[in-house]
């Protein structure tokens, strides 16, 4: 009776997914199965022993009465019922154990899925931040180039000698063309590397 109460208690606890993790519930199911197995083994053994004793007593007493035959038939029916209970109970507990194990696998898969989502989100954020930083750096470079260009234009405009000013303008135009050609060359080099 105590074992049956313990089994019922373990089953009740094992069903509580709010209070116990799937792993804890599996351990509870395993304990319940162990107790149920012992309980069913004992019930089966008792039923088998009762049938054996009744048959042995009837044989020793050479008792072939209907009453004795009826008692043996009832004991055999109880034995069959104990066997049925044994197999049904074991199968039911195994099914609950399998269900709990599937739930653990599902929980682990869900955790892995969430971790993957978080990693992808962090990677996207890092890429977005890197892009923003690159754009900000590019904008600062353009501002710097614009300031430098205006400085050169101002410096050239302050030159009073026409010939010197013309030479300075030509030199500035040449430097701008050279920078544009270098930028094109670097862009082609980047494209070539990406294609490889």
Commentary on this structure:
The chain has 4 helices and no strands. The model has no long low-confidence stretch (mean pLDDT 84). The protein is mainly alpha-helical and 196 residues long. The protein has helices at residues 2-15, 22-60, 66-157, 162-195. Helix 2 runs antiparallel to helix 3 (66-157) and helix 3 packs antiparallel against helix 4 (162-195). The radius of gyration is 45 Å and the shape is rod-shaped. It starts with a helix and ends with a helix.
Output the radius of gyration: 45 Å
Shape: rod-shaped
Enumerate how many helices there are, as a single number: 4
How is the biggest beta sheet arranged? none
Q: What portion of residues belong to β-strands?
A: under 5%
List keywords for this structure.
mainly alpha; 4 helices
Write the layout of secondary structure elements.
Blueprint: H1 2-15, H2 22-60, H3 66-157, H4 162-195
Concise structural overview:
With about 200 residues, the protein is an all-alpha fold. It is built from four helices and no strands.
């Amino acid at each position: 009776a105590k074992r049956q109460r313990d089994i019922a208690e373990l089953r009740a606890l094992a069903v509580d997914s709010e209070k116990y993790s799937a792993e804890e519930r599996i351990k509870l199911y395993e304990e319940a199965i162990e107790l149920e197995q012992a309980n069913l083994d004992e019930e089966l053994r008792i039923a088998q022993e009762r049938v054996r004793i009744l048959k042995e007593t009837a044989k020793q007493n050479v008792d072939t009465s209907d009453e004795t035959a009826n008692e043996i038939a009832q004991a055999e029916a109880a034995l069959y019922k104990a066997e049925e209970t044994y197999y049904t109970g074991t199968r039911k507990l195994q099914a609950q154990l399998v269900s709990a194990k599937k739930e653990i696998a599902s929980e682990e898969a869900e955790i892995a899925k969430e971790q993957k989502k978080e990693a992808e989100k962090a990677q996207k954020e890092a890429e977005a931040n890197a892009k923003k930083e690159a754009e900000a750096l590019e904008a600062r470079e353009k501002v710097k180039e614009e300031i430098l260009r205006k400085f050169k234009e101002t410096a050239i405009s302050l030159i009073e000698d026409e010939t010197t000013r013309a030479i300075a303008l030509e030199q500035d135009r040449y430097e701008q063309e050279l920078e544009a050609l270098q930028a094109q060359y670097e862009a082609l080099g980047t494209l070539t590397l990406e294609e490889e």
